[in-house]
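Q: Could you fold this chain for me?
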Amino acid sequence: MTSQSQGIQQLLQAEKRAKDKLEEAKKRKGKRLRQAKEEAIAEIDHYRLQREKEFRNKQTNVMGSQGNLSAKIEEQTKETVRNLTSSYHKNMESMMKKLLSTICDINPEVHPNFRQAV
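A: Sure. Below is the predicted structure, expressed as structure tokens.
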């Protein structure tokens, strides 16, 4: 009986060792997957930053810098406003006279399409 009990104990111990090895292998596999995922994310981030930098360089070369472009547009807008304001002040008096003369100086006339009934 003792030899059977020893054989069973050996089998149980072997089973426990196999189970421990499987658990350890699963842990190593999980750790390796996490590490691979982290490496992939780091590589993707590095690639994305590199491509964004290249894009910004090309954009700057093609369009010029955004600061210069917005400053140029702002200056053009200010110039247009100045021109419109000066034109307004220059022509305001003459337009008011024209408008008032058109409204106030009424010359009553018979319309050319009016037919006098006989």
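A (continued): Residues 2-63 form the longest helix (62 residues).
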